[in-house]
Amino acid sequence: MLAFLTTVLSFPTVVFTVLLGLTLLYWLVVIAGAVDLDFLDGVVGLDDAQILHAKLGTLIVMKVLPYREHEWRYLVFNTRTKRVDRIDAIGQACVQLPEDHGIIFPGGYYLKSGETKTFDRQIEKMEFLKRIRSPNGEDVLYCFHERGSGRSILLPYNLIRKEVDNPLGCHGFSLYPDGTLVIFRGESDEPKRVHTMQVWRTPFLSEEHVKTKPPTGSSWRTLETPTSSAGSRISWASVAWSTSRSRLARNMRTW
After folding, report:
1. How far apart are CA 216 and CA 231, in angstroms?
2. Is the bond into 135 cis (omega within 30 degrees of 0)?
3. 46 or 117: which carries more pLDDT confidence?
4. How far is Cα 168 from Cα 249, in angstroms, rounded to an integer?
5. What is the pTM of this model?
């Protein structure tokens, strides 16, 4: 061993020994970078990640970019259930539901009870377009749109049942004052002379059209008081619906 060290450190061999050592050091750094060794970066803490958040009632939505990653993660923290769910679809668009029910996004919705519903649809790069509420306040239509392909998705949310009845995908739509909804779907990117269209009857009437209709004498009208409002009636009906549904589920499990 002593003879070897004497040889490599003697002139002129020492010059090549130094060059060889620098070469080995360079390749060791290259290999360490290729395998992404975290210990070379020191201790990684929470401050090394980028975190954005917003409080929406009982929910906290978060946008997180972990250290040395390039894709954002989207999380929902429920302060009631103390549970965190990863829902990347809210990165496209996210709107708070009325009366602190939860949030809705192009791919589904998340309720403050912890219930999550997603739709089996290919949805990308959607933006929130507008929100349309029915005159009685029971239904709300959320419209999302993608500029590139012109696709849209319509999500009618019912405040009493706390669900989206039937998500409608289309390439264009028109809503008339009497609540008639006409949607158009493009089957391909090629131009055609005939296109598929559907006509739906919806509760989303305009205020002007409602004023022209005669009174119906419904049960809601007989329950009204001078201090009542559509919002309070819908809230009580929503609570009654949730209570009856939970009792029904409990009785079914007992039976």
Report:
1. 19
2. no
3. 117
4. 29
5. 0.68
